[in-house]
Design brief:
213 residues; two-stranded antiparallel sheet; globular
Amino acid sequence: MTAEKKEAAGGCAGYVLAGGASSRFGADKALAELAGQTMLARMCELVRRATGDVRVVASSAKYGEHGAVVVFDQWPGEGPLGGIITALEDAKQRDCMAAHCLIISCDMPFLNAGWLAYLGSRAAASRAEIVVPRSEYGLEPLCACWRVSAAASLRSLFEGGVRKVTEVFKHLETEILDEAHWKRFDSAGRLFWNMNTPQDYQSALRALTEGGA
């Protein structure tokens, strides 16, 4: 068994989605720096700590400079669902021996490895095809675990025209983790907060400077 297979065995293979349009942000969010690291490097480090395994799903090889293997998005510019399917099919193809993929977006600066490891452990114990948290803002599909075997069903939905990630929850068995599961990992009340605008970025910088992460 290779080292990569050992790392992923019995748990989740980790993926970070990068390279979205970032239209409201005005620049590439993945390359925005926080506490001396790019967001992408920060997210990759967290996922690697939680799963022992991380790859980046993106449409550009430039992200490979930030410490992870890049898996090229099969449907660039068509939203995160295509990136999720790309990750699942990559995990299946490389036979990393993980039943699930932990897949997160690259713009959630207050995630932590403890929560991600817990999410992976819940997925390992679940019969569901998707294990997803629900915050006060609703479901958080870009911080979820997806069963590798769901790839074919997701591709079928995608090829049938589905692009909204939350739409797939109507078609696949889903376990929802409410506040009782994630609150203890969220002392600052920011666990699922993401950066969409330059103002959000400034808020994140201030919070990290003040030690509020």
